[in-house]
Design a protein that fits this description.
The protein is α/β, with parallel strands linked by helices and 323 residues long. The protein has two domains: 14-129 and 254-321, FAD/NAD(P)-binding domain (3-Layer(bba) Sandwich); 132-250, FAD/NAD(P)-binding domain. The chain has helices at 29-40, 75-88, 150-153, 169-178, 198-206, 300-321; strands at residues 20-25, 46-48, 62-63, 73-74, 92-94, 98-102, 108-112, 116-124, 128-130, 146-147, 161-165, 184-188, 210-213, 216-222, 229-234, 240-244, 247-250, 254-256, 286-288. Strands 1, 2, 5, 6, 7, 8 and 19 form a seven-stranded mixed β-sheet that branches. The chain has a five-stranded parallel β-sheet with strand order 10-17-11-12-13. A three-stranded antiparallel β-sheet has the order 14-15-16, with no helix packed on it. Helix 1 runs parallel beside helix 2, helix 1 runs parallel beside helix 6 and helix 4 (169-178) runs parallel beside helix 5. It is elongated, with a radius of gyration of 21 Å. The model is unreliable at 1-14 (pLDDT under 50). The chain binds NADP nicotinamide-adenine-dinucleotide phosphate. NADP nicotinamide-adenine-dinucleotide phosphate (NAP) binds at residues 133, 165-171, 173, 190-191, 195, 217, 251-254, 295.
Amino acid sequence: MFDLNLPNISSSSVDGDEPLKLLVIGSGPAGFSAALYAARAELAPVVLTGMELGGQAALTHEIENYPGFPEGVGGSELGELFQKQAERFGTRTEFDTATEVDFTKSPFEIKTESGEYKAHAVIIATGARPNHLKIPGEEELTGRGVSYCATCDGWFFKEKKVLVVGGGDSALEEALYLTRHATSVTIVHRRDELRAGPILKSRAIENPKIDFVWDSIVTEVVGDEKVASVIIKNVKTGEESAIETDGLFIFIGHTPNTEIFEGQLALDDGGYIVVDGLMQTGVEGVYAAGEVADPHFRQVITSAGMGAGAAIQAVRYMEEKGL
Ligand code: NAP
């Protein structure tokens, strides 16, 4: 993670009676891109960092697909650059987490762990979290062979053996991506039938680099400095075995961080915030950007673009309302 001793950090998270023009909830690529655009339009945004400054991208060892960095850039370093650029134009970063929102009030009211904010416009960029297996070794070896993002980390497994857990579209799509780099990709699925749609299913089955271990779950990740093997268990026979591998990619679904918006905003079946093409939620003046509203692309560049779009709309909204 990056340096928490940054300038511009207010000792108080509670603003006085004067509402903010714009509050951004979340500090990943979407949040700080939104703040950058809003700050340059003189909305003096406040960014609530949430638990994970920089969002999921900051946890990625190296990002090689964000334009402008031909040699790649560390995830935390890129997050720090996003933050610095947004702060340069007047963004204020608060190390605080939103816990409750009331979008029926005008201005909107947002409670946090440390206090309360009022704001005329809000951009939600709280992201999503990949579901974890919650097995021994998983947490310790994350970033050392355990990964939740093939497009981020696949390159590091050039000419290596990897395992993929999951049977949905994400698992198959990412497994197919991994075949570009790895010598072999073994998909471990807990049933004997894939959840994924027919096109991805047949592409995966036909790919000579991919093989399947059916009816099985991974129960432990083994390794000291990096992943060496995993223990798998056949759920039908109970038989346990070890498979040597260099990497373990886990794609068992994502959970958008939208719990605090339930009942306030329209969410889709997966819990993602529903927005229109202008990043507008069902509540005028409330926008959502990045993975919290995007179950499809989940990339730093797309999240940053959505954040910029949301801020442009927020600026227009403030101008229309004369705020
Ligand atoms: P998903 O469809 O929910 O699939 C999750 C997979 O993980 C399932 O196969 C599930 O097994 C397995 N799983 C869940 N918990 C597990 C656990 N604890 N241990 C082992 N396995 C576990 O999630 P997704 O693949 O991320 O897809 C999310 C949505 O995005 C879907 O609607 C999908 O169609 C869409 N999507 C589409 C595309 C595309 O069209 N190209 C690409 C990616 C995602 P079971 O099957 O036994 O439940």
